[in-house]
Amino acid sequence: MNNWFTVEQIDKDTYAISEYGHWEEPHSYLLLGEEQAVIIDTGLGVADIRKEAEEITGLPISAVTTHVHWDHIGGHGLFDSFAVHENEISWINGGFPLPLSMVRRDLARPPRGLPEGFDENTYKVFQGEPSRILRDGDIVDLGGRQLRVIHTPGHSPGHCCFYEEARGYLYSGDIAYMGCLYAFYPSTDPKAFYQSIKKLEGLEITKILPGHHSLVVSNSIICDISKGFAMIEQNGGLAQGRGEFDFGCFKIHI
Ligand SMILES: [Zn+2]
Ligand SMILES: [Zn+2]
């Protein structure tokens, strides 16, 4: 499990903790405030992300969730408290809408690996009781540092972005990244996804910190994704099952 995580410092008190060994290349973000630290998502749950975070800070760390997909909540159980949007409480309480066999298959899918000695057949999707319920507009206060919760459904019903207005940082989860954006499976909603992207368009953004893949993301990607959805809508509608649309640095699969 040595070096499973890659830690990259974004600024003096913000870190990306990434799992590049896995094909999904998920990112969690550790944000240090004056009183506490927050980790946005906790990755796949195949190695000890709390230990990794505690090597960076001695502050108490609580977790917040962009959305309750298994690859974003894997390490939630390692932390004393975590927050989830109200629309996904049932998912984190055991109602995750994907069979465990499918999750294990996705987890172990080639070409990328898992930590040495990790057996995917023992993997379980995290379940637990959130200590805080998130709603649109809520503030997560770290002491001297604040995050605003922006409810951005579409990829999942309780998906949230976290916006740090003072720095112009948008932690975008699975709504915007350099890769294929997913709104094709039953629990997704392409129309809501488009509305969520539009909701983000008015924000002053200096940096996008995505849920997957490259950490280098152009700030124009929000606008570009919005244009992509507009184009799909004009050419036949935002209906599930229409397939994959390739826009160069991102794709939209509905
Ligand atoms: Zn997701
Ligand atoms: Zn994801």
Helix-strand makeup class: alpha/beta
Regions with little confidence, pLDDT below 50 for 5+ residues:
none
Main sheet characteristics = 7 strands, mixed
Number of domains: 1
The helix tally amounts to 6
- First CA to last CA: what distance? 36 Å
- What's the average pLDDT? 96
**Level of helix content?**
10-25%
Rg for CA atoms: 17 Å
CATH architecture: 4-Layer Sandwich
> Which word captures the global form?
globular
Count of distinct strands = 15
What bound compounds does this protein have?
zinc ion
Order of H and E elements = EEEEHEHEHHEEEEEEHEHEE
Proportion of β residues? 25-35%
Q: Which strand order does the major sheet show? A: 1-2-3-4-5-6-7
CATH superfamily: Ribonuclease Z/Hydroxyacylglutathione hydrolase-like
CATH class descriptor name: Alpha Beta
Question: Could you list some keywords that capture this structure?
Answer:
single chain, 254 residues, alpha/beta, Metallo-beta-lactamase, Chain A, 7-stranded mixed β-sheet, 5-stranded mixed β-sheet, 6 helices, globular, binds zinc ion
Quick description:
This protein is an alpha/beta fold.
Would you mind describing this structure in some detail?
This protein is an alpha/beta fold. It has six helices and 15 strands. The strands form three sheets. The chain has a seven-stranded mixed β-sheet. Strands 8-9-10-11-13 form a five-stranded mixed β-sheet, with no helix packed on it. Strands 12-15-14 form a three-stranded mixed β-sheet, with helices on one face. A hairpin with a 4-residue loop joins strand 3 and strand 4. Helix 5 runs antiparallel to helix 6. The radius of gyration is 17 Å and the shape is globular. The model has no long low-confidence stretch (mean pLDDT 96). It binds zinc ion (ZN) (2 copies). One zinc ion binds next to helix 2.
